[in-house]
Amino acid sequence: MPLTLADLTRRTGLDVLDHLEREAAIPVTGRLQAQGDLIVIPCITFGWLDGRVDLWPNARWRSVPAAGIELLRSAAGGNPHTLVADPGTCEWTTEVADPTGLGLGVLTATGVAYLLHPEHGGAGIAPGTYLVRRQREGTDEARGRDGPLIAD
Questions:
Q1: Greatest CA separation for the chain
Q2: pLDDT tens digits for 38-58?
Q3: Domain contains 146
Q4: Residue 97, domain member (yes or no)
Q5: For residue 138, what are the contacts with CB-CB under 8 A and spacing of at least 6?
Q6: So what's the pLDDT on residue 43?
Q7: Residue 18 class from Cβ within 10 Å (0-12 exposed, 13-18 middle, 19+ buried)?
Q8: What is the domain count for the chain?
Q9: What share of the chain is helix, strand, coil (3-state, %, to 5)?
Q10: Block means of pLDDT (10 residues each) for the chain, length 152 residues?
Q11: How far is CA 88 from the centre of its chain?
């Protein structure tokens, strides 16, 4: 049975804004996905993104607790993006080499992990390994009519 936003907020103690439908099921995907300032990129092997992004040698991993790990807070000090998972099912490292400076870290999960944000709600991440990056807007010329570009 799919997890709802209400289930996730009860489990973590984190809250979301009133405009979000708490009884909505949280979608889970193993594909590229974005949540506000973050983008989650699935990784088949390390050395992805044209060989420019990789883990540090001997990267240290930490287990993601049920209460979650704050990955990013908006530039204005606003709402946090929090990674949450059942105990023992997800690990996180910030020891990633990304020459763009956009990489926040890598997560690896054997069960579904979730990103939770007060304004955006929840996003489910299927088991696997993912790079989590900040999104970057392109210049007006690069952006075109379709809006912001995702991280390169």
A1: 45
A2: 889 998 655 555 567 888 889
A3: no
A4: yes
A5: 148, 149
A6: 84
A7: exposed
A8: 1
A9: 10, 40, 55
A10: 69 64 79 87 65 84 90 69 91 91 93 81 89 73 40 38
A11: 18
